[in-house]
Amino acid sequence: MKNYFGLLLILSLFTWASCTSGSSDSNYVSPPGGDTDTDTDSDSDSDSDSDVDQTANIDAGADLSQLSMIDTLEDGDGSIMHRGGRWGAWYTFSDESAGSTLNPSGDFVPGNSGHDSGFAAALSGSGFSDWGAGMGFDLSNAGDSTCPEAPSSGRNAYDLSKFDGITFWAKGSHSIRVVIATKETLATEDEGTCASDCDNHYGRTIKLNSEWTQYAFKFSNLSQDEGWGTEVNFNLANAVAVMFMTDANVTVDFAVDDIAFFGATDADPTLGNGTTEGAEDFNIAAGFRASSYGLAEKGITYNDYSYLGGVGTTMSNYFTDGRPSALWIVGEIDTNENPGTCMLNFPNDSSFIENAIFQECDENEAALTHFDSLGYKLWIQVEPGMADVGKLIDAILDRYSHHPCVAGFAVDAEWYSTTSEDGGTEVSDADASSWLSKIKSYNPKYSLVLKHWLSNYMPSPMDGIIYVSDSQNVSDYATLKSNFQQWSYDMGTADIGYQVGYDKDKFWWDTLTNPPEYIGTDLKNTFGERMKAYFWVDFTITDAFPK
Predict the structure, then answer these.
(1) Angle at 167 between CA 441 and CA 251, to 5 degrees
(2) What is the pTM of this model?
(3) Is the pLDDT at 271 greater than 60, yes or no?
(4) What are the φ and ψ backbone dihedral angles of 8, each rounded to 5 degrees?
(5) Is the pLDDT confidence value at 334 over 60?
């Protein structure tokens, strides 16, 4: 089943690509000013750097242990991953010789069958008699996007000096040249600074194989093509684009996949190891629940993270060795237009997920970065509906697990495997074990939070899971506490937590002196070290914590 919203997003990305100088049907790269290496030996490279083995697929000293992924193509769209400050769309280009054909030639659509995956960037065509054809992407070009995190308009420079090189997988029947275009090698009409004999970018020419092969080239081993073009220094701080090009008179048929930079020399935001502290390392995580709909009732958005950060800090200060925390909901169930669909508030960099809809703009990155600075330990939560929880875990933790504030993943079982407000489906032991194993594969310190008000929806008690009750709509605090005591009993010796502060209970908790502190400290005194989490709901957050 196709993701309709995803298709709209893809179309919008293709539209903005066609509105920029990087349109896929424009002459994006000016014709080179001389020989582009038409020799046919197995090396297929005319560069004169004799101390570098130009026939090697992977340069000596290329450390591929940590990669900053540019694009896996698995989201099926024409945009690179919006990570590490990068932003751009794929495009194709050619010399537009009379009678030539190029596929894709308009909106960029990834080809089927990638490197051990469903998609790759693929290009085919023929009839290019002048200088050839190619495909590529800009590294910092927002197009017409209005996302707050998008770069400024135009083809901006992107600093590659923090990386050692580029790696990718490729296959094909001919040679290609992979290049890094910089401001100094791009012509002024292409938003560069080169005045004449332009587009001789630093790169490497390689002979492709018919099978998928990995390549990894250090930037220090790239060079300009010989015999033409303006010679310039390779200014990595002014990188603009990555492109894969063919010569003239070549029947084009090649594909690339899993493109990444390697060897970061500083703290790249996509490479962090995340938290080094798990729930077992502190007394309690205390804070708030955050959903877009709950916060909206109080006139708050996810962008109000400074206020929200203060709420968690205040809550944690009620306890000895507390950590400010949140249940930060990034996926909310749609029970109206698309019943059972999980609506996620960030772009999809992973594979297609049935019953999940993503959006172009990321609503979480700035907040999580702020929470990092406050020493938060929070769980990223979903209301999964009919979407596969395992795939949601991958999509979410692959994007956000580098944040030290992330302590794990949370599932609201009330919305698990359901299309309506019916209480969800019981989480089986097999489900919980599978999710926990996947979460810990990202970080062994991570824990899984499972939430419901009915214990029979929970799996058997097990280590690594915090069982959170959100019981509400009771006559008084004594009744709520009794419900929580039953929850504690039903969960055996497993870690537990509680979510409180609902509107339906306000008539009694509003009579307490400092309700969040009173309820939280009393529950902690009652349940002791097993109580690892305590959250106030967003529906009444400004009542309890005036803004």
Answers:
(1) 130
(2) 0.81
(3) no
(4) -60, -40
(5) yes
